[in-house]
Amino acid sequence: MTMPPVSRTTRPSTWFLWHGHRLEPGARVLDLACGEGRHSLAAAARGARVTAVDRDQARLAAGRERAEAQGLAIDWMAADLGEPWPELGAFDAVLVFNYLDRAKMPQMIELVEPGGLLMMETFLSTQRELGWGPTSDDHLLRPGEMARLVAPLAVQHGREVVEAVDAERWRAVASVLAVKK
Asked: Which tens digit of pLDDT belongs to each residue from 98-119?
């Protein structure tokens, strides 16, 4: 018996899978530094109205293609988040995965509507020891740093963990689900 090929399509983060149910149908969701849009696609599949932002046109095109194949409507926006941001508005939820810009945290928090969520996850400094991923201190969180970065939002759930990505790789991440009061 031959097995079908294993899909290399990336899935949403475990953190998103645990908390994605918080995204109501019709919710306005912003996915910052979305890449190919694995979280944008998952949020749109839940019925959210998603704006996905990334600077990489090729990755946005790949996400757009996947969204069209799945019949999902997502507003894909090219913008370099290291530069001044375009006017984005406010959102019921802001998703930030594998992206860290400490100086832009107040701007990210400002994008969350009162009562809205920030769902964020990024690499910890111990990721260096795992042999892949970012290596610069600018892109790695120190232990305990995430909760301070998202203040004044109220942290509802957070973690710092080393978890399996696949059979060969592990990742060290900090994750948070925080609400704007």
From this structure: 999 999 999 999 999 999 999 9
